[in-house]
Amino acid sequence: MQIITNRGASALALAAVLALAACKPAEKQAEAPTTDTAADALASATAVGAEWLTYGGTYDEQRHSGLTKVAPENVSQLGVAWTYDLNSNRGIETTPIVKDGVMYATSSWSVLHAIDAKTGKELWVYDPGADKAVGVDACCDVVNRGVAIKGDTLFLGVIDGRLEAINAKTGQKIWSVQTVDRSKPYTVTGAPRVVKNMVLIGNGGAELGVRGYLSAYDTETGKLVWRFYTVPNPQMQPDGAASDDAFQKIGNISWGKKGRWTTDGGGGTVWDSIVYDVKDNQIVFGVGNGSPWNANLRDPDSKGDNLFLSSIVAVDADTGTYKWHFQTTPRENWDYTATQTIILADLPLGENGAPRRVVMQAPKNGFFYVIDARTGQFISGKGYVPQSWTTGLDARGRPIETAAARPADGKASLLSPGPQGGHNWHPMAFNPQLNLAYIPAQELPQGYAPKSAADPHTKWNTGFKFEDGLPPGPLDVATLKAMRAMYKGRLIAWDPIRQEARWTVELPTPSNGGVLSTASGLVFQGTVGGDLVAYDAATGKPLWRQNVKGGVAAPPVTYEIDGEQYVAVASGWGGAYALAAGFLFDKAIQNNLGRVIAFKLGAKGTVPDHNMTPVNARPQIASFGDDAMIQRGLVAYSRNCMVCHGPMAISSGVLPDLRWSPVSTDADAWKDVVIDGSRSMNGMVSFKAQLSPEDAEAIRAYVVRQSHNAPDVK
User: Could you list the active site residues?
Assistant: First the structure.
């Protein structure tokens, strides 16, 4: 690990890379609910207190705790207080909620666990019985980022599109409502937010072709209160939704009247950041990528901005009506979502240094933005990671694109950031005492090779060729090592006033965990390698680390019980990077069960081993098929299998590595899974709509060939 201060970070030289994967009409709307008359601790909180009551800690979502008992001078005394097994071997991305001494944490497939926050004892488990066939529609693993709470009621988003109210004391379901059109490939992985007497939820699925929106439901009844669509109705007609007026005035004219957006929805899913601005009574939320990514396929007869893709949008909290927007990536083309962490803060940016209410975000496109929270006016923006798609921002905050940013006519461009982004979903934090934002950043460039027409042979609706440049044989060791050296992670302490890094910690791999800040001057972050690390918030000096025996993507939280401060984090290897980047690891990470691990000062516990059966990483049968069959298998695999099982059939260990699968030894058994869908209940659905039996057999030949080509890289 290397600490870089101020401007000492230098851009990495880019080398050749392989491609990485990075509704129905509105229901009749209920009357807007009245404001909750109970005292709302979140409305006035500027930092987390003894409990962690909402996804971002407070309504401003700064993930900054006012607790100070764990401090730089004693953090080295943190020890394991307890561990709790989540009984899941898929990605874990939960932010636990802590209320009245109980922790509520979610695991994969939207399972909800109630845990005694002092002892780690299980109180109850609620399994919503998610339809696992939708797992293939989840671009980035079957994860869940947490719940919301109001009084004694929890609100859970289920991956198959449901929003459910659960009794916090008993774990019994109170009500359930379907929030999406199940005939389309929507998913729900984000944490709901409670605002007044409403619970807000978005959805995902833009990679497969859907139309995004944000919905508000009554907390008592589950009835729809309002809905804001993020892209126009395909006929550019009103939907009876809160967004109608915005599209009639400014949205529709930013789209052409032809293209795949009119049949595939346009994208713009609201799959993560949803923030309540108490001072202006508005909801500020982030909007995702276009569908397809390739704007020339999505909207070929227009050069418009395609609102509200890749935008930060503010709407009235009570009615959902449009107030303002700021688009981070006009005419989005690269999966540069603006769904990453949105933080509200007061910075000395007003007249004569007076406090000014701002929105801050570091979205995928690589720029850190500071925007006026009341008006949406652009204040400032600066690149926080190396970029090759732009040369900067103009006076309005619009990116100045390079000539290579939008490749066409059969050409390809190597661009940074890639679709995994300079910062992905992993929550950043903000210390209002130091005026520093802590960004879990990364460097993952990618080659973009656009398609000239729609492709019926893949479920992924991107408009780019995943298979372009992939070799049918093994990569040489030198190339693999060079690629691994190029991809990296960073924890950046960013000064939003000066728009520069105060300090940076470089990490050996991307996709490290979310961040927690504390008033005692600490920053906590977990890593892919399984370490939870505490840094000095002002300098970046590492002060403490503990290995938790499982990769960490989830953000830590902190709380206090009986005068003792706890720091807790969930471990569990998975997510988009883990699925898509197996070839970047020396060896597949062994399957492990997700856990919650809690620490406190003076504790002497340990993190148990997982004792999982190791993978038998050796070819199962002899290689077969001629070069033409292998090439056919490579193309079909890359279009349909790569985003879950890894490029070049190299898995990182989250899902089965097909090279070592016993199913690959038998053609009938392989067809039974790939074409006939015999394992749909496990999330492996049939691909008969995309693949012929001959395609499936070519994939088997390719996978078997790759088992004999496995690189040996140390």
Answer: 335
